[in-house]
Every structure is written in C-alpha cells, then in structure tokens.
Specification:
about 0% strand; single chain; mainly alpha
C-alpha cells in the first residue's frame, strides 16, 4: 500500500483548481493521479475538508465485541463441568452438558 501524500501537496492542488485550473492539468502539473486530484477537490467543495481521512485501523473487533458478555459465562460453565468430571461425578457433568442452552434447530424434514 502506498503512503499518503503530503498535506502541502493537497493544499496546493486545491488552490490551483480553485484558481481556475482543471483537475487533469493540476494532476499532471504536480505528478499525482487524476483521481486523487478529483477526490481532494470534491472533498474540499462538498465537505470543506482538505485533510486526509484516517487510514487503516481495526475492521474486525466489532464481530467479537458482541460476545463480550458471553465469554465469561461460558468459561464459568466449562470450568464447572470440568470440575464435576474430574471429581468423578460423571452424571452431573453430563447432565450439565446435555442441558446446556443450544442454538435453535431446524425442525426435522418430513417426507412427502
């Protein structure tokens, strides 16, 4: 992935385009991609923003954050079942496993 171009370059491109030069000419003059010049000028005109947006960051933690409250409960449940199993109380351990909450299941398919 390429580096972000300097803020000074963005400001100069926006200034010359606001002064009347086309985005294509400005991109050629400063040695940048036409699409970059167009995006910068569009952001300046619509949002009043000349700064680059933040790059990168975490894109997946929201998937695991929704289970933040479930994990401690599961850990407690597993440790309790393991304790019962280690103590030789297999009936109680297996009962806890069999009575654990499950995901909803599809009803069985009926034959025609």
């Amino acid at each position: 992935m390429t580096r972000a171009l300097s803020q000074d370059l963005r400001d100069r491109v926006i200034a010359v385009v606001d002064g009347g030069m086309s985005c294509n000419r400005a991109a050629e003059r400063f040695g940048i991609a036409i699409s970059s010049a167009v995006r910068w000028v569009r952001a300046w005109r619509t949002e009043g923003r000349a700064e680059a947006l933040p790059r990168g960051g975490d894109l997946r933690s929201h998937r695991i954050e929704r289970y933040r409250d479930v994990k401690p409960a599961l850990s407690t449940w597993f440790s309790r079942v393991h304790r019962e199993y280690e103590a030789g109380n297999l009936t109680r351990a297996f009962r806890d496993v069999l009575l654990a909450p499950r995901a909803p299941r599809r009803p069985p398919r009926t034959l025609p």
